[in-house]
Write a structure and sequence with these properties.
The structure is a single chain. By secondary structure, the protein is an alpha/beta fold. Helices cover 34% and strands 11% of the residues. The chain contains 11 helices and 8 strands. Helix 6 links the parallel strand 4 and strand 5. Helix 2 packs across helix 4, helix 5 packs across helix 6 and helix 8 runs parallel beside helix 9. The two termini are 23 Å apart. It binds 3-methyl-2-oxobutanoic acid (KIV). The site of 3-methyl-2-oxobutanoic acid (KIV) has 12 residues, from strand 6.
């Protein structure tokens, strides 16, 4: 059933989580391992549409990410590279309408910021103005520090993303763990420090060894949000369809299904098919009252094509 959306900041609705509150979680000792409490570890989940966003918000998640993973999850592509700015704006706006409490961050997709800091500011602005995002996320380390700095100077909060950066899937040779070995670990740590220095208020660490994530979490004064980065981060993020057991095929090591929703969807739709075929759906509860006592079926003449159609034909 459709009900009226709560809408961000709606009167009487829950209070929105702010960027300073999220930053303060770091000082409150919000490591996932020691968490579960209000003010502890940050929870982030992806969403791509209004209905999912509203349910995730109701569950009390702190941050909702409109990830460019929508290329795979929504569009069925094999990676995030084809996702466009217009698509990100469209999905971000739909998600924004479903959130009352959670902070909304949205991904800058491939080639929407890499070309120049000016391009980055312009497209970050679009996600805020047209999509109603409250912060933007972008991938990369030292090479995009200037871009982050310029976006932040424009008054837009930024979440960084280092380690496995899926927009660089071809350069990395696949979706592989990053930061293995001392040199590679040092590079991820330097990248994270560069993004913090550029002004990001939080940073996603994707697919790195847990000890490297722990070193980064200790070295930074902004919260780290891990996905495949172990339990020492200040928060965790999961793709909603992974969390809900809706994915099919390959599952990344870090994905955990907290409920078999995919199987439940298949069972529910199969039950619908069976009831329709058995003639038991719709039942009396799903059927409007008849017009009057049942009458013997009349034979209706089809209207002649030469005569005008009666105006109330469809009512
Ligand atoms: O696009 C995405 O969903 C992401 C998360 C996996 C962090 O970047």
């Amino acid at each position: 059933m459709y009900t009226t959306p709560k809408g961000a900041g709606a009167a009487g609705g829950p209070r929105k989580i702010t960027v300073p509150e999220l930053q303060a979680r770091k000082q409150l000792g919000g490591a996932s391992g020691a968490s579960g409490t209000e003010g502890g570890a940050i929870t982030m989940v992806t969403a791509y549409d209004f209905t999912m966003a509203r349910l995730i918000d109701e569950a009390g998640v702190d941050m909702v990410l409109v990830g460019d993973s929508l290329g795979m999850i929504v569009q069925g592509a094999t990676n995030t590279i084809p996702v466009t700015m217009d698509e990100m704006v469209y999905h971000t706006r739909a998600v924004a309408r479903g959130l009352g409490r959670a902070h909304l961050t949205s991904d800058l997709p491939f080639m929407s910021y890499q070309a120049s800091p000016a391009q980055a500011v312009e497209n970050a602005g679009r996600l805020m103005k047209e999509g109603f995002a409250e912060s933007v996320k972008l991938e990369g380390g030292a090479e995009v520090a200037e871009h982050v700095h310029r976006i932040v100077r424009a008054g837009i909060p930024v979440v960084g993303h280092v380690g496995l950066t899926p927009q660089s899937v071809h350069a990395l040779g696949g979706f592989k763990v990053q930061g293995r070995g001392e040199d590679a670990a040092d590079k991820v740590i330097r990248d994270a420090l560069a993004i913090e220095a550029a002004g990001a208020f939080a940073i996603v660490l994707e697919a790195i060894p847990p000890d490297v994530a722990e070193r980064i979490t200790e070295a930074l004064s902004i919260p780290t949000i891990g996905i495949g980065a172990g339990v020492s981060c200040n928060g965790q993020v999961l793709v909603c369809t992974d969390l809900l057991g809706m994915s099919r095929g390959h599952k990344p090591k870090f994905a955990k299904a907290f409920a078999p929703v995919g199987d439940q969807i298949v069972a529910a739709v199969a039950a619908y098919v069976a009831e329709v075929q058995a003639g038991t759906f719709p039942g009396p509860e799903q059927t409007y009252k008849p017009n009057g006592p049942a009458k013997p079926a009349l034979h209706h003449e089809a209207p002649s094509l030469d005569e005008p159609l009666p105006l109330d034909l469809w009512h």
